[in-house]
Q: What sequence folds into this?
């Protein structure tokens, strides 16, 4: 079954203190080394652009409230998967999340290093189709800037990093086994960018989803064992020092002949550039700032989460629609 790779709330909005989100519907157990699956521990100092999306109110405090990943592409701008902001993941509209934060500079989620920065506004790609997961990207604007050297450049159209056979790496704090064994420390797995033809054969449009070369890129290991998994959604796929994809969806985690599918960054660079603050040196003019909430509101300021305009059917309840989870 096609599934996204975000963590989801278990049941209603009320979670017991410290409770973890329930893992998405389970697939047959992978081999022991099929565990990011098949990854290695890394320090955030070596990948300072990796961030965690967090809400202790919704996901408990054990892992800092982490539920998805993201990438710093400008000092006040983070890109993540659009499905991470959906009701299936958050249990309600994103503007109702009172403590939505982006965690930067933190390797170990139980530690206090780094910063927790509030989200000023969010904008979902208006072309995002939740039925197919095409265009699965959203932009978050932060209330505070990070150092420009912690920003990861995006690979434009025609960049060789998208070429088949390119060595890449996927980063995250997600499930390391496919059975809810969420990591406390940042991990990365080496994967290979695959040809569009290979991706199309893996996902021809059946119940597991359809690969679309114009908006997606896929990567993995033919033999399986290296992949993103639940909780990694929105995290970066990096090749040749550039961001080429965001963890989006796939069939299970780490399965042979089931590569992970990522949002292709190149077609969305213009949208990313025009979203957020006009004063952000790495982005274009501000075009999607939501109005501030009413005085005393505890929600996220200025949330502008626009609905998808495609024929999306939304995520399937209780499981990853296809995005990797």
A:
């Amino acid at each position: 079954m096609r599934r996204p790779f975000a963590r989801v709330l278990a049941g209603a909005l009320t979670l017991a203190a410290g409770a973890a989100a329930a893992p998405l519907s389970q697939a047959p157990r992978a081999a022991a080394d099929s565990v990011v699956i098949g990854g290695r521990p890394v320090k955030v100092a070596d990948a300072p652009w990796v961030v965690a999306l967090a809400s202790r109110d919704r996901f408990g405090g054990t892992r800092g409230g982490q539920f998805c990943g993201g990438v710093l592409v400008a000092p006040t701008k983070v890109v993540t998967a659009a499905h991470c902001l959906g009701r299936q993941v958050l249990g309600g509209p994103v503007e109702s999340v009172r403590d939505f934060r982006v965690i930067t500079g933190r390797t170990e989620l139980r530690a206090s290093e780094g910063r927790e920065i509030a989200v000023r506004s969010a904008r979902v790609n208006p072309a995002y189709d939740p039925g197919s997961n095409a265009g699965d990207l959203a932009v978050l604007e932060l209330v505070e800037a990070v150092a420009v050297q912690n920003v990861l450049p995006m690979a434009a159209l025609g960049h060789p990093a998208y070429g088949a056979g390119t060595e890449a790496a996927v980063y995250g704090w997600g499930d390391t086994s496919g059975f809810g064994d969420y990591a406390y420390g940042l991990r990365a797995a080496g994967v290979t960018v695959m040809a569009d033809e290979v991706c199309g054969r893996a996902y021809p449009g059946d119940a597991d989803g359809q690969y679309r070369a114009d908006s997606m890129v896929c990567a993995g290991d033919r033999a399986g064992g290296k992949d993103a998994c639940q909780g990694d959604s929105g995290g970066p796929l990096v090749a040749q020092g550039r961001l080429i994809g965001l963890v989006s969806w796939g069939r299970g985690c780490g399965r042979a002949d089931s590569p992970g599918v990522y949002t292709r960054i190149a077609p969305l660079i213009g949208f990313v550039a025009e979203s957020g603050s006009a004063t952000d040196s790495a982005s274009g003019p501000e075009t999607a700032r939501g109005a501030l909430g009413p005085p005393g509101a505890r929600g996220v300021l200025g949330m502008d989460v626009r609905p998808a305009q495609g024929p999306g059917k939304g995520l399937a309840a209780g499981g990853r629609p296809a995005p990797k989870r």
Notes: Residues 273 and 283 are 4 Å apart (CA to CA).
